Protein involved in gliding motility GldM
Amino acid sequence: MAGGKLTPRQKMINLMYLIFIAMLALNMSKEVLSAFGILNKKIVESNSITDTRNESSFLQLAQKAVDQPGQFGDKKVKVEKIRVVSKEFNDYLENIKTTVTKDFVRDKEGNLPYEQMDKGDLIDRMFFTGDKVSKQGQEFVDKVNNYSAQIKQIGGSAIAESEMKKIEARFATTPVYSEKAGAKLAWIDYNYKGFPLIATITKLSQLQADIKATESDVMSGMFQTDLVAAASLTAYQPIVVLDKSVFFQGEAVTGKIILGKFDPSLKAKSVIINGSSVQAEAGQAKFSFGSGNIGEHPIGGSFNFDEGGKVVSLPIKDKYVVVARPKSATISADKMNVVYRGVVNPMTISFAGIADSDVSASATGLSKVGGGRYNMSPGGGTETIINVTGTLPNGDKVSDRKTFRIKGIPGPTGTIRGETGVVKGPKSNLEIATIGARLEDFDFEVGLDVVGFNLKVTGQGTVVVQGDKLNAQCKAVLSKAGRGDQVTISEIKTKLVGAGSYLLPRTAPVIFEIQ
């Protein structure tokens, strides 16, 4: 065995091999079989504990991914995929164990009859066909091989090279030298051929333990990488925090520089902003300088620290924009350049550089929704004027106004069964049909109610109808019509849903041709 301090896991593996040797020496005594059973039980219990610990670690990683998606989001995705692959492999091994032990009766505590599990024929028939590896045996070897390969593919650079080598060694299936055979044997022959069933069950449980240890090692390694990186000052990123993003010409540009990882005990040796030295404070440095001309301007400099006997400089790089003081408001209709009577017209009203809370707008039928959004419900007339006033940070007032045309809703088109134009079908279809109306190419979603219409069959008198369905008189007239006759639905009276008695302009007729 290797010298030095051993991990609990390595001690367990060493103990298992000592038991193998003892088993051969004692010719499969009942005590040895029981020892294997006890060892298997302890491994299974340890696996359950590891599962709980891994779940806790993953929940911590998931929470960090929510709090810091840029740093931990990709790692969470990788770990999720690794957990899926691990579960599939673990379930595969568990299925093998279940299959070969299903005929054994367990005691009241759920333990297998270890002393009766001294034969290896169940596994031998599953994994081998004569001296060759069976199809199921090869599948087993491939599963072991592919697991570490999948971990490497998913983890990529997020798994340290040294950690990946350890995982690959853990699931290596290279031939093994046998002292007894005096030659190298295939991995599956060396580990699974001719062993008592309880010994094989224990080995499969140990493989499951290796899977769970791999999950744990991957997550621990990812956390450790972040802890090491966070311990260095190179992990800190200077951040420019301006008091506001846009400044008016003539104002002082004010703000502060903070570090991405704020530490109140950390103070820079010096801070340079745009070529000038500013006073360093705990974890930050405040600054103030003239805004300059209209346009975009850079903010550059450095945070300077002493670390390890040398100066570490963290660059500062940002920019700000200077704009002229606003003289006009931005007023626009979200749907079009006019507003329509009879519907609610959504609008956006703002003043460049002025907060929404400092902007007020007024007009007949105008109401504020919030966040620069307004609703306009125009009344009579042909135009409406919107007046806007904004209050600058220094208290000055600026104002603007804009005129919008008011138009009525265009006339809709009549429908039969929701169809427009010439609708064809048997008389029975028309008798039960609903007469409706639809606004073609209109930007607003509105509900329309038909409250009356005229029905005219070729060669017969016109029937005036109240409502949106054919009455008895219509059906009487319709009964005299024959194939090829056209029924014209005209003078359709349409109103907006919820708009009271307000009727829309004339609705285009629709024709029904009897077939």
Summary: The chain has four domains: 8-230, 236-323, 329-407, 413-514. The first strand starts at residue 128 and ends at 129. Residues 30-67 form the longest helix (38 residues).
